[in-house]
Design goal:
Largest sheet of chain B: 2 strands, antiparallel
Distance between the termini of chain B: 46 Å
Helix content of chain B: over 70%
Low-confidence stretches of chain A: none
CATH superfamily of the largest domain in chain A: MetI-like
Strand order of the largest sheet of chain B: 1-2
Mean pLDDT of chain B: 87
CATH class of the largest domain in chain A: Mainly Alpha
CATH topology of the largest domain in chain A: MetI-like fold
Strand content of chain B: under 5%
CATH superfamily of chain B: MetI-like
Radius of gyration of chain B: 26 Å
Number of domains of chain A: 2
Number of strands of chain B: 2
Structural class of chain B: mainly alpha
Shape of chain B: flat
Helix content of chain A: 55-70%
Strand content of chain A: under 5%
Largest interface: A-B, 96 and 97 residues
Shape of chain A: globular
Structural class of chain A: mainly alpha
Mean pLDDT of chain A: 83
Number of domains of chain B: 1
Oligomer: heterodimer
Number of helices of chain B: 15
Number of helices of chain A: 14
Order of helices and strands of chain B: HHEEHHHHHHHHHHHHH
Chain lengths: 298, 312
Amino acid sequence: MSKKRKEKVQEYHKPLVKKRKPNRSVAGDIFLYLFLLLVAFVMAFPIIYAVSSALKPLDELFKFPPTIYPRNPTLDNFSDLFVTMGKSWVTFSRYLFNTVFITAVGTAGHLIIASMGAFVLAKYEFPGGQTFFKLVTVAMMFTGYVTQIPNYLILNKLGWIDTYWAIVIPAFASPMGLFLMKQFMEGLPTALIEAAKIDGASEWRVFWNIVMPNVKPAWMTLIIFSVQGLWNNKASTYIYSEEKKTLVYALQQIQAGGIARTGQGAAVLVVVMIVPIAIFIFSESQILETMASSGLKD
Amino acid sequence: MKEFFSKYFLMRKLQAGVAWKKMKRSKMCYAFLAPYAILFTMFFVFPVVASIYYSFTYYNILEPPRFLGLQNYIALILEDDIFLTSIKNTFMIAIITGPLGYIMSFLFAWLINELPRWVRSVAVIVFYAPSIAGNCYVIFSVFFRGDAYGYVNAFLMNIGIIDTPILWFINPTYMLPICMLVILWMSLGTGFLSFVAGLQGIDKSQYEAGYMDGVKNRWQELWFITLPNMKPMLMFGAVMSITQAFGVCDVTMALCGYPSTDYAARTIVTHLFDYGFTRFEMGYACAIATILFLIMILCNKAIQSLLRRVGT
């Protein structure tokens, strides 16, 4: 019998009523469940409302009292989005392409560069390594806004203002990714790396063929954090040509259109939030596995 | 004395020699770290240094920076009333939403910890979603719309608490509280994930040992077993909360406008944007950035030394 099958059989033979933990009362548990249900509803309400507004036809949008579920759900708002954007000289698909390009390239580069750094920081001792890592943890303690002005000057010197690179390249160096990756890689058995080296693998091969496939859960974590930052990037300080601006920027333009655009505004909200949330839903268990090693030791 | 110095320098020389040899041996490590290290220095370390340098100058991009000494800081603290408002607002937001968001993150992570597996993963999605939902917070401007058609106004008028609609985002009394509400809604972020994962990783046998030793209720379990085990995650979560709490600007700018009425919703970061990217007074803006940087680092250090005492 394979191991997986064995586990399944054991699962089946478990007693149906589990023994209750000590220190827990039934009343307390019921109260707890109700409380959590209430909080969950409050947390989810704005998001549900946004999604349902995006699906509502015009006559239902302004109804009072508001209905949570649209009575005649339509996708009109989404198709209107293409129509409205189609009239502007930068099309919706172009904004979408900008955002997708920035997100994809920024995330891929961040993943590779941060993993390379994390690999040597986690698995080798070399002068300056620990100091550098301390510096990275300090960098997590202040927001990116602090460095925005000098960043602008640097990007200007490099001639990257008004190109995608102004957003993409700084995203490669996000400290959070390196930190999480390093913490996770420390959990890898060193013997694995040594065995590969004895077999004559080069450092790059060890990294690419042994270490990287073994830290897949951490990939997903880096991806979600990076995507979340880049996908929501307004990019209005570094990019001023209309045809290079991002989706979030276009969203704000549409919302500035006032009440008549309420439905379309909600549709863009959905388009913008669906990607990070979908990635999170599909990779939740892997992300939690990585976050288990996220602790900051002193 | 002379002998001491010569010995000291000899030792340093030897140490440096050893370090140099070690560095030569680990060339590969530097090669791997180099891409990240270069970018990190370029976009994180160097800007902080540059920011401190520019904060002592008058700089408007067109002319070369002119040295002013401490004048920017003096002007900020003594003459700029709006900056003082922004400091007050930022601290109000940080002091209320920071700790509250942090406690909420831990509390909910802890409460959902014992739920069955699939309920827990749904709960994590529901609680975490607001913080990654991008611009979704602008939906609050629909709830709190200033006319009688805004849901909150309509509700309050229907039950008779108010008789004229409240201009939620224009009246300075209501701006900050509503922004705080929205920020709290989004505060179950990275720290929350870290807590959820950390709680799952605690060795179950510790609890059993605790029951044997006379742990009587949930709270004792929490204080004597859970919290000490969670210390590294608590530290990490604190860093995340503080960084977020002092960096507030998106929410206030989107909801209350930029600039907001009477500057009632101005935060330090908004002030920084105003001077940096609207008025192009880079030196002055860098002084603001430096102050924000110092506040954040000091606050982090203080909280960390506080958290070290948890469960001891």
